Amino acid sequence: MYVGRFLVAGPGIGAYRVSSRSFPHRKVVRRGDDTLTVVPTDEAEPTDNPYVSYNCARRAGDGVVVGNGSHVDPVTEKYESGYPARDALASSLLALDFEKDDYDTPRIAAVVTDDAAYLGTVRRDALLVRQVDDPHLVATYEEQDPRPFEFPPTTASAAAKTVYGHEFEHAVCAAGVRVGDGSAGFAVENGRDE
Hints:
alpha+beta; seven-stranded antiparallel beta sheet; 15% helix; IMP cyclohydrolase activity
């Protein structure tokens, strides 16, 4: 099944995967110690599509923000400035709205801390933000309502590898995050040696 881009988040753990039929030549790169960014690979055709490259994970105060687009930055900024996670997600998702592409692609995001996780999505027909006590999955297609998801990884690396290897179709690249003990760990899975 093809669900497009998706993320999984629960207290202390999160992961994001790019799944794409249209823009498969992308990878996740580290930007310093606190940011992961989706960028085109050298094989990618030039494009001016604003949804191809973006920060997909950023350290934010006591947590990490994970998501599928440019909204990751304002969620991070709001959370760092003192907004509660729910409000940082809701206000940023509402302001940017769903992606204005041919598919009205939803924006998805999560704020993950050591002991809490909040998932949010904005799509043509709804804005949803909810706190979750266990790992939940939300995707841009087919799985647009957050749902419980069995997710055993306990490290950022295992989280990235698990979502990259999941049975959903058209895996391109993935990011994993682990939050705990006042620190955040990041991992990348690009499915090939870079």
